[in-house]
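Memo to structure team: turn this sequence into structure tokens by end of day. - J.P.
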Amino acid sequence: MRPVDLAVRLEWVAAAVAAIVFYKMTGVSWWLLALLILAPDLSMLGYLAGPRVGAVAYNALHMLIVPLVLALAGVLFAGPITTAVALIWIAHIAIDRALGYGLKLSTGFQDTHLGRIGRARP
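Reply from structure team:
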């Protein structure tokens, strides 16, 4: 792995840790985190309709803009559950990026904006 790739992955690890620390500060039960941490991956079901639909569905739940807006709304309107859900979502995205999973391209699940995931083809 190139040093720059390692640095980017470490940044995402830091983002995941920050989201989890802020989650703890909401006072919401850890059960909610355990229940929802993998929820965005349900978007992979879109691949049952083909790679283009799958990429759109997956990317819709793996971009930061919506959970960031949700977190802001939770903070502004004193909604600890809303804030907690947003932080779980942000943590999920950050963990995915730290593991090298990027936004999907319409050519297939393994093709991402970070490069191809999985084993290299011979």
